Amino acid sequence: MSQFFSILIPLVLAAGALIAGNPRLTEIKRQILLRAISIALGISTILVAIAFFRITEQNSEYLLRLNAINLTVLFLVSFMAIILIKFSEGYMRSEKQSHKFWRWLLLSLTSVSVVVLSNNLLLLWLGWVSISLCFHRLLLFYPDRPRAVFAAHKKFILARLAEVCLLGAVLLLYSHHGTFQLNVLLDHYQGLAATYELSFVEKLAAFLIAQTALIKCVLSCLCMAG
């Protein structure tokens, strides 16, 4: 039951993206829908909190997991989603293509929540890629603005490079440990002695993860400067 509650927030956001992104939806209906999404997010967050306090043990085979860290981040994601929806309603009301904005915004938030909850490295990577692709579409919301298009193109190239590095790290870790489950890997490394010597595969995986983080930092700086 707790695993069901854990996917309520991603499900609400995904359903909202599907419906709010419908170009045939009238603006009045879209505004009502967005308010309903905000209410549903608030209720889902409360249900997830209740489920969390009843969790006794996590199964290592689950694709998603709840713990104190990712639950706190998930609460922040849900809170920020509500704020973003409320803040953007007025600005996007007069936009003819507002359905595209809501589709990609809510899908990006869905992807973020999946990454936060993920207990599987492949699922985490897919969510990571999805976030980047959704942000790319948001950057191109005004395709006639040269600065936005230029920033989107720079981001697209660097983001793909970061994703290749991360995928390489995921595959290396799988080849060494035989599992994609994140909690199994964390338990393994947390239980190691201080004198443990990492293998070449593990060092290479760590290097690729560091490169992924570095590229993302550079990407953020370039987007802000562009």
Care to describe what's here?
- With 226 residues, this protein is an all-alpha fold.
- The protein folds into 2 domains: 119 residues; 106 residues, no CATH class.
- Helix 2 packs antiparallel against helix 3, helix 5 runs antiparallel to helix 6 and helix 7 packs antiparallel against helix 9.
- The chain is flat, with a radius of gyration of 19 Å.
- The chain starts with a helix and ends with a helix.
- The mean pLDDT is 85.
Query: Stretches where pLDDT falls below 50 for ≥5 residues?
Result: none
Secondary-structure element string: HHHHHHHHH
User: What quaternary form is this?
Assistant: single chain
Please state the average pLDDT score: 85
Let me know the number of strands: 0
Main pleated-sheet profile:
none
Proportion of β residues? under 5%
> How many structural domains does the protein architecture include?
2
* Discrete helix count: 9
Radius of gyration: 19 Å
Ends distance: 46 Å
Portion in helices: over 70%
Based on secondary structure, the structural category is mainly alpha
Shape: flat
